[in-house]
Amino acid sequence: MLKTVAVSEVELGMFVHKFEGGWFDHPFWKAGFVIEDADRLAAIRESRLRGVVIDTSRGRDVAANAAPCEAVGAAQAAAHPASRAKRIRQRAVAQVAPVSRTTMAQEVETAAAIAQQARDRLGQTFIAARLGKALDVRKVEPVVSDILASVRRNPQAFSGLMRCKLKNEDVFRHALSVSALMVALADRMRLPPQEVHNCGLAGLLLDIGVNYLPLADHASLGELRHRSERVWRQHVMLGHRVLQNDTDLPQLVLDACLMHHERIDGHGYPQQLAGDDIPMVARMAAICDSFEFLLAGNGTAPGLDPAAAVEALRAQEGAFDEEILGQFVEVVGMYPVGAFVMLQSRKLAMVIDEDRKDPLRPVVQAFYSLDTGERILPHRIVLSECNDNERIVGVADLTGLGLPADAQLRELVFLSAFRSQA
Fold it and tell me: From 3.40.50.300, 2.40.110.10, 1.10.3210.10, 3.40.50.12280, which CATH number describes the 104-332 domain?
């Protein structure tokens, strides 16, 4: 029997079925556990949850003389105004060994090598899927570890490389990009190390079901998604079904595969889940997956500039978990690597690196002057060192300037910034 109780009523031996409140109101990755130790009990009681749904058939019931949930819950929240940052830190129950940070230039070469090795491993897995063979997920596990290590050394290098290189086949680029975004987001949310790894694995396998669609060999991911919606929607069930055959896969990966197209407002698929019924990993995957699809385009419409894609995500009311979306924007930045921007000096530039201290003033590579109407010698500008003399005034409009197509231009500018590494 399910019953909602106040956090002050929670006791050892109770089975937590669901948390009543936002995900950042408590330090736990997910519900569905018995409260077996004092530390876990204290964390629930010190949270800002409105209440906790317990399952009395699987654990202890509440005492008969307990106070009403609403009144006690409100008092509890007022008595323990713990900061969001503290609650997120509590979620990192296992400590990760310190990682030496690298510059963008230092990490790009390593990221390129990781991407090539990852492509080879993924290629074998995807070919096996298309041939109807059993998947061996263990072959792609090392890919996640390599991507995670790269992201921790430099959060922007791997994703930036994926955005700015034309040699990456559609399906591989999407899988690697989503995996990198998933581990970066999970790291930012301070999830335990094993959960971070599993989020990266989920990103790699998110669209494994595409390999089983009848048009998978004849259309890009974008074309298939937007031109054949009925066929496209089958990929989540197909992917989930094949991944279920691997009994060693974490439930987190299965949930992400099946439910990354659900929406917070209940208008997604395949089950039309809404709100808290959507697992947290699926909410994370929905954002990372959608961002990458916005960048790729669909065969009839070009992909969006990364900065425009961030705005497009924020404009989709009811689609995404707002708190996680806020964390995602912090990961990629308002002006992600690969975004074309216009500067106050009327130069056009592309973002090539973040500034960790001032996200709104990243490092850019200038390549065009609107005043002269001509290309200029590409040169790096560290906006945070320009005082008020230079700044971004908006996303650049490249229409009618006689420049290469966005994808080609993005690679050319990236190569001019990191020629020896790319």
Answer: 1.10.3210.10
Residue with the larger pLDDT of the pair 328 and 162: 328
User: Three-state DSSP class for 80?
Assistant: coil
Q: Which of 9, 75, 80, 6 is nearest to 47 (CA)?
A: 80
What backbone phi and psi angles, to 5 degrees, belong to 363? -90, 130
Cis upstream peptide for 270 (omega within 30°): yes
**Predicted confidence (pLDDT) per residue in 127-185, tens digit:** 776 666 666 777 788 888 899 999 999 989 999 988 887 655 677 788 899 999 999 99
Predicted confidence at residue 227, as pLDDT, reads: 58
Query: CA of 298: how far to CAs of 48, 170, 227, 389, in Å?
Result: 43, 11, 8, 39
Give yes or no for a contact between 295 and 308, defined as CB atoms under 8 angstroms apart.
Answer: no
* DSSP classification of residue 210: G
What local confidence, expressed as pLDDT, does residue 74 receive? 39
* Interacting residues of 301 by C-beta distance below 8 A, sequence separation 6+: none
Domain boundaries, the chain: 2-91, 104-332, 340-417
CB-based burial, 233-263: b 16+ in 10 Å, e otherwise: ebbbebbbebbeeeeebbebbbbbbbbbbbb
Question: What is the mean predicted confidence (pLDDT) over 402-406?
Answer: 93
